[in-house]
Please model this.
Amino acid sequence: MELDEIRNEIDRLDKELLPIILKRMKLSASAADTKALSPAEIKSRERELLKWASEQNCGDMEQYIHRFYSSLFELGRAYRETCSPVGGTVRELIKTALSRDCGEFPQTGTVAVQGVEGANSQMAADSLFPRGNLIFFKSFEAVFDAVESGLCRFGVLPIENSSNGSVRANYDLLNRKNVKIVRSTRLCIRHELLAKPGATLDGIREIRSHEQALGQCSEFLKSLGDRVKVVPCANTAMAAELASRSEFGDIAAIASHPACELYGLVPIAKNIQNSDNNYTRFICISKDCDIYPGADRISLILALKHRPGALYEILAKLTALEINLIKLESCPIVGHDFEFMFFFEMQGSVHDPKVAAMLESLEQTCESFKFLGNYAEA
Model:
């Protein structure tokens, strides 16, 4: 056959195939509604059809036919869920949130921050709340507790760094605490080695900083060899404060430049981070599930059934609905060998019916489900 003939034949088959696929999807949705089939019954029916397809002597196309039908099932599920929302607590949570007129994201408020003046979290909080009233706490958990108890309306915390990965402690706290993400922002982080005036790099015997900052400057620290002791502490600004109290000036801190003026230090090495493209992402948490205008990111924590294909089914659902997944990270579930919970971040808005239906479906099918919020990144 000539190329034009092949194309014409493909066009003819496509015109025949499209109405068949549409009819099949609608019949599948009707069958699920009519019989009120459980997810297990639907899955059993799909396995029967896949078995039938594999027995049709498809030759070397068998694996492709299997994939075609699997994709068709996923599309059908996505269509059914959009047509017939399953409800659940997330539906009520979203409905309540949207019923409140939050207005624009506030420029002020009482904001909980971990550390002391000069910390990166403080700079992130200032960028989100130009007229905010900042209250400092010693630990990340104390920030969560301050928000959860109502002591502070908001809390600002680091969640991940472009070169050193996630702040796992805060992901764990997001899972355990009753708070929601209402905003996020990114800061370009430039680290400096700060010490008392007159100090030299050769005279430094100890360097302190937060473990994330130490990881972001690992190459610089390695270049110093074993002569320098590296000590993690709770916060970069706290490290600067401690360095300012050094009696002999031989203790330095890895911190940002604003800490120099605050604590009377000078930089003895600048831009010591591993990468110039060094960004830390911060989240703003609140006790209330407020959804402000422009919210286009959704964060979830899911625990999936411990069986083959469980994660694939979630990803296939997002693909079928053309939802872009921004982040996927696994974390072991304490007390469960080789079982994980997953942190999902995706583009989308709960104003979109297909997104709301997808969230309801996930709540029904996952072992555990936590909606962390729908928010915008400043």
